[in-house]
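Example record

One chain of 327 residues, shown exactly as stored in the release files.
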Amino acid sequence: MHWPEDWRPTLVTAISTEEEFDWSGPFDPRQRSVEAAKHLERGQRVFDDSGVRPTYIVDHPIATDPISIASLGAIHASGRCEIGAHLHPWVNPPFEDPPGVRHSFPGNLPGELEHHKLRQLAHAIQASFGVRPCSYQAGRYGFGPNTARLLEEEGFSVDLSASPAFDYSGEGGPDYSDFSPEPFWFGRERKLLALPVTGGYLGFLSRSGPNLHRLSQSPPLRSLRVPGVLARTRALERVRLSPEGFDLATLERLTESLLDRGARVFVLGLHSPSFLPGCTPYVRNERELDEFLDRLARYYRFFHSSVGGRSMTAAEVHRSLAPTKLS
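Predicted structure tokens for this chain:
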């Protein structure tokens, strides 16, 4: 990526806007409840107060249920957000998926089936919200060998599927252990912009992060609680830029570390069910919800004030970095 000289550190907020379901599986097509969508305004108030227009990446239950259409539709109609697409194959027609956890990653589906699902999702979003999505995130970060071609064919311009430092290969998904958090152009004409959800390794052993973290996850070392020891001693921590499961100090340290290495775009990720206590492991009660929202607001203050950064939507970043504008 060739950055314009006046490019400031930029933050994209990407919200996986989805049904409530059991993240540990099985991935049940009957789990389509969107009660948490009634509470999107809880988070949106933080975004509004912080000068943030988030990108809500929307899956099929959200795009087709009257509850979520009304809640998110009101936010979108007021110009306070952008809407993208989020493919959860187990709740997205057509329902021809091969059985098993492996196919909860949409990139593992046969190409034709992945295409049909993506097309139906885009049509549903356009019918409900009046906008054709241009940003995409694969459910469970499951980008596959056909995904780039399908995104191009369906007119998408931004992909938020990569999750640097995290490995889903144990369930048949992608391994992003060695993946860079830096944006890049890809696709046949290199007009698709990849904006990985920001993640990485912290600590004095971070240069050996992927290999050391992989080793620490082996059964003998896990039984000795080596991953916990590495994190507590700050020798090696694997971190995602998210208020879910990470405290403010850790998010600030990750940001500063990546800035020192030249990072210029950051993607903060979270899930819409976290706005309703009891729907995710990260927000189990009202106290934790208050702490979650406060952590989010304080991180925005840090990024905008201490870092001197700004917030943009995923599509705005793409427009600002379009290849024709780059040297």
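Notes: The chain has a mean pLDDT of 92.
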